[in-house]
Amino acid sequence: MTAETETAGGAPATEGQRLPVLSARGMVKTFGRVVGLDGVDLDLYPGEVLAIIGDNGAGKSTLIKCLTGALVPDAGEMFIDGHQVRFKRPQDARDAGIETVYQTLAVAPALDIASNLYLGRERRRPGFLGSVLRMLDKKGMRRDAAKTLAELGIGTLQNMSQAVETLSGGQRQAVSVARAAAFGSKIIVLDEPTAALGVKESNQVLKLIEEVRSRGLPVILISHNMPHVFEVADRIHIQRLGRCAGVVTPASHTMAEAVAIMTGATTLAQTPGGA
């Protein structure tokens, strides 16, 4: 007899089907008379890069903020591994295994690389020194930070005691992504990770995204850079006017077709790969 599992949408799925790590159903968010999200559905599957694209005002940032606890949706449901969740603050999402890297490069420039990796999660030294004197285990954090960066293939950062303010933009972004990969047990969300970076630094970040995916960790990538999206994404969620205009893949649609759907010049059903 075929085993069945109840999916987020309520329909049974056979054991052989992939079940999403994250599902959102009917997400609605309004700001007065402005509709940020109008019934958006989203699925993120294990080991994939899901890109979210859309013009300014399409609802990309609002959707991500609702998924990561920065905003509370007015309506809709969210599920992680089939279990319903409700985030009221970003820490709730972090506790559930979702790590977010924002476009603004949320690093502390005056701190070193290891301190940034463990920012907000600092470890105490064992025994009396840690429990009573509250001393940090700086040596252990530097050792484990170096191990994390090495596992992600980040070879340009060797000295964990180096201040982040001395790093390039791409290296700073690598530290942010490494922190997310180290502590994101379920999902990593990257908001415009290559914005304001040069070609070489952008390529480093894209390779890092591929490395994270190869470890089986799913990634949500928000980007305006279509070549980057088509280079690393497995599926592309297209937002338009607060709604999902469709989900395509780099194999089924060209860059021009994705942009046409995004701008409303065409619909998904009208494109060659559309339903």
UniProtKB/TrEMBL annotation:
Keyword Transmembrane belongs to the record: no
Chain ranges of the ABC transporter domain: 22-266
One Pfam family from the record: ABC_tran
InterPro entries: AAA+_ATPase (IPR003593), ABC_carbohydrate_import_ATPase (IPR050107), ABC_transporter-like_ATP-bd (IPR003439), ABC_transporter-like_CS (IPR017871), P-loop_NTPase (IPR027417)
Keywords: ATP-binding, Nucleotide-binding
Superkingdom of source: Bacteria
Keyword ATP-binding: yes
Protein name: Sugar ABC transporter ATP-binding protein
